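Reading group handout, session on sequence-to-structure problems. Before we discuss, look at one worked example. The prompt was deliberately terse, the way you'd type it at a terminal:

> structure HAT C-terminal dimerisation domain-containing protein

The input record follows.
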Amino acid sequence: MPPAGKLNVSPSTSDTTVVKAELESCLEEGVLAFDVNPLRYWRENKSFNILKPFARNILGCCATWAPSERVFSKAGKFYNPEPAKLGPETFRALMMIKCNYDI
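And the output record:
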């Protein structure tokens, strides 16, 4: 028996054919209209069950560094390495409040 978490299974030819057929079918549909929300499209789409998880992972990635830069900017207002009067737990709590106050 293989160790937990590791499978020594190679994809069969039929599995590869199914994935290839689904990818080709998706590509034949063409580009979505500009006013279509791609995340909603993949959530509500009843076909492309193999490609759906990949699309959601790719579309969920940030396209820019702006969100992380905003967090670092906010952190710089709280944290000063010289006096270091804030403990790590207090710093985390303040950052959580500062970054999520609008939720």
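Points for discussion. First: Residues 66-100 form one domain. Second: The chain has five helices and no strands.
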